[in-house]
Write a structure and sequence with these properties.
This is Receptor ligand binding region domain-containing protein. Keywords: Membrane, Signal, Transmembrane, Transmembrane helix. It is found in: Membrane. The protein is an alpha/beta fold and 352 residues long. The chain is 36% helix and 17% strand. The protein is built from twelve helices and 13 strands. A hairpin with a 2-residue loop joins strand 11 and strand 12. Helix 3 runs parallel beside helix 4 and helix 7 packs parallel to helix 8. The longest helix has 22 residues.
């Protein structure tokens, strides 16, 4: 599936020919950790050849995900399972702004984010009469802020400052840190502001940096994974032992792992269990050796049986419980809300 670099980073494109070559060599299941466009191509290939395909959606440089919208069939030929839970960004933002009783706010998003990902949220808040503005944050944040001061009159700038009192940041952690630094240093925001940052990929180091650079009140929402309270059990999940480097949530290496890679780890465990189950039940199928040339290719006869074994299985791993619902998706996802009080002092405490 293309060349990889450190951190399991995918190549920008996956060539269909590469997938075909792998399938010719023999295959039991396909695991992909890629973007939506490539996932759609692999889904078509897996469905046609009856190869179980476990898809782990990856976001760009920590930018919030948008839903892929993979084509789901009602027929008995859907071989793609979604390992990473659906994008709940719309639901999360709506719950939070409703809880805070916000009626007027601005949403900043970076150049990597597809703003269509929160269209459902925008439709709902519009129906409820909320006043929402959108602004794209360019890569050169300093130039963006300078342009504001150069083009706006004093009264316009004051109105803009008032708008910034309530803001949602939908961007990767690095851009969020740079953006907050710029608006604080240029006095665009004051200590009575309240900003919300929503991103699944923010780790503890990012949180501390964001708090250190901000003033006012900061709320951070991210995906979290349940960790056993019993320290002696943290490295043991189900019938397997997790690497000591990964099982400690405070380990720097574990802290910096992308969420996609946590799901890759658990997916491999799940597949290992499924293959072992097949061997135990003496229902092992020879691997599919398939050709992508239409006239010579036939779907793998063991594909449906292998898919059902995978779907019925489950694993307790780094992401908690990984299993699949009737719709072929993993329903298990947890969010945590971190926040500070209003203030402008450095080193403010963060509480859950």
């Amino acid at each position: 599936m293309g060349k990889t670099t450190k951190g399991y980073r995918e190549s920008k494109y996956i060539q269909k020919e590469d997938s075909c070559e792998l399938m010719n060599q023999g295959i039991l299941a396909l695991v992909s950790s890629i973007g939506c466009t490539s996932a759609g191509s692999l889904q078509s290939l897996a469905d046609a050849m009856h190869i179980p395909h476990l898809f782990i959606q990856r976001s760009t440089a920590g930018t919030p995900r948008s839903g892929c919208g993979l084509t789901r069939s009602n027929r008995n030929d859907d071989y793609t399972l979604s390992v990473r839970p659906p994008v709940y960004l719309n639901d999360v933002i709506l719950r939070v702004v409703t809880e805070y009783a916000w009626q007027k706010f601005i949403i900043f998003y970076d150049s990597e984010y597809d703003i269509r990902g929160i269209q459902e949220f925008l439709d709902k808040v519009s129906q409820q009469g909320m006043d929402v503005a959108l602004q794209k944050v360019e890569n050169n944040i300093n130039k963006m802020i300078t342009t504001l001061f150069d083009t706006m009159r004093i009264e316009e700038l004051n109105r803009y400052r008032d708008t910034l009192r309530r803001a949602i940041l939908v961007m990767n952690p690095a851009t969020a840190k740079s953006f907050i630094t710029e608006v604080v240093e240029t006095n665009l925001v004051a200590f009575d502001c309240h900003w919300i940052i929503i991103n699944e990929e923010i780790n503890d180091v990012d949180v501390q940096e964001l708090v250190r650079r901000s003033i006012g009140r900061l709320t951070i929402i991210r995906q979290t994974f349940p960790v056993p309270q019993n320290i002696s059990q943290r490295c043991f999940r189900g019938n397997h032992r997790i690497s000591s480097t990964l099982c400690d949530p405070k380990d720097p290496f574990a802290q910096n792992m992308e969420i996609s890679n946590l799901y890759i780890y658990d997916t491999v465990l799940l597949l290992a269990n499924a293959f072992h189950k097949k061997l135990e039940d003496r229902k092992w199928h020879s691997m599919a050796s398939l050709s992508c040339i239409r006239k010579n290719s036939k779907p793998w006869q063991g594909g449906r049986s292998m898919l059902e074994t995978i779907k019925k299985g489950g694993v307790s791993g780094l992401t908690g419980e990984l299993e699949f619902g009737e719709n072929g998706g993993n329903p298990n996802v947890h969010f945590e809300i971190l926040g500070t009080n209003y203030g402008e002092e450095l080193g403010r405490g963060v509480r859950k």
